[in-house]
Design brief:
This protein is of the alpha+beta class. The chain has 2 domains: 223 residues, Jelly Rolls; 59 residues. 19% of the residues lie in helices and 24% in strands. Strand 6 and strand 7 form a beta hairpin. Helix 1 packs across helix 4. Bound molecules: calcium ion (3 copies). One calcium ion binds next to helix 3.
Length: 283
Amino acid sequence: MRQSLQPLLAAGVALGVLCAAGLANDDANLLTNPGFEDAGLAGLPLGFQGINMDGSNWVDSSDPDGFVRTGSKSIKIEPAEGPGQAFQALTTNFFVPDGSDLYDPDYEYLGGDVHIIGYYLVPEGQTLANDAIVGIKLEFRREPPNFSVYTSVEFAVPQNSTGGEWVEFHATFTDADMLAVGDFPPYATSVSVLPFRFWDPASGVDPEGTIYWDDLCLIQGDLGGCNEADLAEPYDVLDFSDVLSFLTAFGSQEAAADLAAPFGVWDFSDVLAFLGAFGAGCP
Ligand SMILES: [Ca+2]
Ligand SMILES: [Ca+2]
Ligand SMILES: [Ca+2]
């Protein structure tokens, strides 16, 4: 049965591999509130502050066009309505309530590649067009109190239309990329994460298309796992530990076991996806 399922599941397995592997180690996700489910300030999700964005950008599944991948919340960034909105973003670069730290995930200088993973959707019939860039920006910052940006990088989404489907986004800033910046101590100790879009008003053309984001994941170091069934150590080997991890994650409705649509629902499709990946084996 596993064999016959493989062709059917191949696409889904390939699509979900890296994020599922990343999310398998929930502790490894350095972002607060990565699925945007919890409420924060100003009508925005916990852990994120708006730059030309407000509560209207926090999506609920009951909204018209309320696209969410998991849970009942996501975020959306609509086309800028004028030059004052040219840069729109959510950022993690602000203080937790007791002021002891920022929401920015910790970063260890040259401590391993940084992976930013997530899912985005452009509604059916729409195309992102005429922005300078739509994607995710990372700002590597020095220690408090100065928080100055050591270096930053912007990653564009790989496709401008998704036909209303959630598409995986995965970008990596490697230690080699960091070394190429130069040697300017003090080194960065945290990284701000900004889903964003930027439109150049001088372009003379209006931006088009709305983008939705859900289930972001920031990880530093090895993602672990050869595919979405490789949930437990030893990685690159599929054995009974992986089956146990899947059953545990499935039973407690963790992201690691949510391997197939409908996402946010743990059902037989997820079991089939696991069996398919398990049967396919590690390369
Ligand atoms: Ca969500
Ligand atoms: Ca394993
Ligand atoms: Ca599912």
